[in-house]
Structure formats: C-alpha cells, structure tokens
Design the sequence.
C-alpha cells in the first residue's frame, strides 16, 4: 500500500513539474513577443502626428488599466507629459499613448519598473542599441532589485532548474 502511494505521489510530482515547465515556457514566449514589440517600437522612424489628446482616465481606459497605474508610471519616470487639456489636466498625445502601451505590455510580461525605466532612459537618450540589453541585464549588480530586473534571464534559469527535477522524480520512482 505504501509503495502504491509513493508511485502515485511521484507521478503527481512529475505532472506538476511538467505543468511548471510549460508555464515557464509560456512566460518566456510572452516575454520574447513583448521585447520584439519593444524592438519594433524603438526602431519606428515615423511617429503619428495628430492633435488627439487623452487625459489620464481616457488613457487608462484605452489601456485597460486604472488611472492610478498611469499616475504610478508618471511618478516612476516612465512617462511624462508637458501638455495640458482644456480643464488644465495633464493629457497624452498619440505618441505618448504608444509609449504607454509599451509600458503596459512590459508590465504585463512581468518586467520590473526599474528595468523598464532603464530601457526607456536609453531610448530617450538616443541609445536605441542599449534598450533591449538593459531591459534584461542591469549595467551592474547593484541595479538588480528583483527577478523582473532580468526577467528573461530569470525565466531561462527557472526552466533549466525545473528540467533538472524530472530526472530526480524518475530516480525516486525507481527507489
């Protein structure tokens, strides 16, 4: 009876490990797609020039997030607008909205605020070639605050570590 329970536990462990690996792989794909979209955005030569203006509420609604999230991104230096609407509220242009969409996508892909900030500072400074590398790898270890500061690298490490679990489960089954 104990042996049957042990086999059942190891099979369950194997199943959970495989599900974990699949989840990590999905996150890797999501992070790669997001960084590719960022790459396309940073290399876009022509930005839309319209007179469209969006207040924080409108911007948040278009992104599917909250006004407080947009304010938080402003406080963290990810977006800044010096434009004001008819009621003296801050407004965002279409190019600001593109930037907000990029920020939103990067946050949804679990990149940290600091990694996004590093990348956008490079973009704003004209260093397009450093935007993607600094998204995943801080310039120095002191900048590393969380897994989201080097998200893709963290995911790849997690995948490798998770793959090492399967042989251990196999070994447990044989015992």
Sequence:
């Amino acid at each position: 009876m104990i042996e049957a329970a042990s086999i059942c536990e190891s099979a369950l462990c194997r199943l959970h490990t495989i599900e974990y690996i699949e989840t990590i792989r999905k996150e890797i794909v999501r992070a790669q797609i997001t960084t590719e979209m960022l790459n396309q955005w940073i290399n876009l030569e022509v930005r839309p020039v319209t007179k469209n203006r969006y207040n924080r509420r409108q911007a948040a609604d278009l992104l599917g997030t909250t006004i407080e999230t947009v304010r938080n991104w402003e406080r963290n230096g990810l977006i800044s607008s010096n434009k004001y609407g008819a009621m003296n509220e801050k407004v965002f242009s279409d190019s600001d909205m593109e930037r907000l969409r990029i920020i939103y996508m990067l946050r949804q892909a679990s990149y940290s605020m600091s990694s996004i900030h590093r990348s956008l500072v490079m973009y704003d400074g004209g260093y397009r070639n450093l935007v993607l590398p600094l998204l995943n790898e801080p310039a120095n270890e002191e900048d590393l605050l969380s897994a989201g500061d080097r998200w893709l690298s963290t995911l790849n490490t997690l995948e490798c570590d998770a793959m090492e679990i399967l042989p251990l489960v196999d070994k447990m089954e044989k015992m």
Notes: Residues 55 and 88 are 10 Å apart (CA to CA).
